[in-house]
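Course assignment 3, question 2. Fill in each field.
Student: A.L.
Task: Predict the tertiary structure for the chain below.
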Amino acid sequence: MRSFGLRDRRGWWTAAAILALCCCALWPIAAAQTSPQTTPPTAPLTLVSTAWPPFTNARGQPRFALDLVEAAFGRIHVASKTTIVSAPQFTPSLLSGLFHGSAAAWKDPERERALIFSQPYLENRLVLVGRHGADVSAATLAALKGKRVAIVDGYSYGDTIDTAGPVWVRSRSEEDSLTQLLKSAVDYTLMDELVVNYIVNNYPAQSDARLQIGSTALLTRELYLAVARSRPDADSIVERFNAQLRGMIADRTYHRLLHVNWIRADVDGDGVPEYVPLNDRAGPAEPTNAYTLFTTPSSASEPPVKPGFYLGGNVYNDWASVPENYKVSNSDKPDPRRSSASIFKFTW
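Answer field:
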């Protein structure tokens, strides 16, 4: 056996050094291949709300707003749980730090200091409903001074109604308000336009024959998701939530959860609203009734822009431009994806 000479030993150490450097260079690549990067899941949100049907309520009850927010959360993989508290407890609970926010909140300066608000995703518009033939032209609550007006006990109508003028009659529910109206126990009832739209769509003959519905919103408030600023990912959650809203109109998630057949909203982001049907079987005639997601202040100097129609992923400027294959009657069968728990049952 031959022993290594000096030259041989130098060559061996040189080769060993090169091999060690190569191993060190390859180690990060191997580690990246064997340990893929993962994004940590968003921690669940604990939220607070009041029982305010049809917008917020416990599961199994009408809760349109919570349904919409939870549908958006499902798209961005955010879990949430809402605790229902009484109306007097709501604001203290919301600002206490015990919760991460609320899925349905109105804005005010105190709340904005503690919470990050999303884009509005719904608008509460309360309109006047009377018996058939009644004068429902009042533009303000003050114009109803002395009239008996039914409102649901426990709903958050705001502080302005206390000095507005009507004689408020507290009812147990929307259904009870309508019953009192039809029995002439009250002169009017104040109902959210979304509930009115539901009545008109589901009881067209009865509502046409027995009700008179006002066209002016006497109270209007926008509804938001609010997340506590103390939560580190609050901005991210709100931004991702906002990004889902327009798509939920286009794919008819809004229609399904709000139980409406037509929605008027800006679905393509150009600032001009469109009429969006429940599906692409829009029917043979232009709609006469559509639920408007958001009202916009009118300007006397600018003529109103007529909405287009969104069908098949395209916007058509007017009904005449809509292809005939979309102007077919829709089935009368209820959409099986609609939650039966969110349906009102009115007795006429």
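Instructor remarks: The domain at 123-221 is CATH 3.40.190.10 (D-Maltodextrin-Binding Protein; domain 2). The two ends are 111 Å apart (CA to CA).
Grade: pending
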